[in-house]
Specification:
With about 160 residues, the protein is an alpha+beta fold. Helices cover about 25% and strands about 35% of the residues. The protein has helices at about 1-5, 65-70, 75-95, 95-105, and strands at about 10, 15-20, 20-30, 40-45, 55, 60, 115-120, 120-130, 135-140, 145-150, 155.
């Protein structure tokens, strides 16, 4: 998104890309235990008119077209995405998961924010301060404990 549009895209844990706090990309990845492959799906709100965007409370969406004021070249967007995926894969192969996580932290919108996450085991609230080597979010809860969250619906808490 940054490369193609110059918009200030940030990553919301675990799998969204935001611009100005609004979701423009959703990513899903699936791998079987022990598999040497991952299936990745990427949905990009490219040239979606503002009125056609979903209106989900607490999860505002945007399209690149609406943010830029003009349509985006979807071919250029896909080419840039594939280049970034290739670079990320090469970084993972050559330098390992720590290097990938370091890069993720540089663009993370979630870290340093007060969050509330609805998890299957119940809500977790506190300061999102890091991710571990599996990509799980580390949250310092209001009671001082640290929780490791692997999945859930995250919302930034207003102060």
């Amino acid at each position: 998104i940054r490369e193609t549009t110059r918009l200030p895209a940030r990553v919301k844990w675990p799998n969204d890309v935001l611009v100005e706090g609004r979701k423009v990309v959703g990513i899903l990845a699936e791998a079987a235990p022990g598999a040497e492959w991952v299936v990745v799906g990427v949905g990009i709100n490219a040239n979606v008119p503002e009125e056609a965007l979903p209106r989900t409370p607490g999860h505002p969406a945007a399209s690149l077209q609406a943010l830029l004021g003009h349509p985006v070249d979807r071919g250029a967007l896909i080419r840039a995405l594939l280049r970034r995926l290739d670079r990320g894969y090469e970084l993972l192969r050559s330098a390992g998961v720590r290097a990938v996580l370091m890069r993720w932290r540089e663009v993370a919108d979630t870290l340093g924010r007060e969050v509330r996450i609805e998890t299957p085991a119940g809500p977790v609230a506190g300061l999102a301060y890091d991710v571990d080597e599996t990509g799980a979010l580390l949250v310092r809860c209001d009671d001082g404990t640290v929780r490791t969250v692997t999945a859930g619906d995250l919302r930034v808490r207003e102060r």
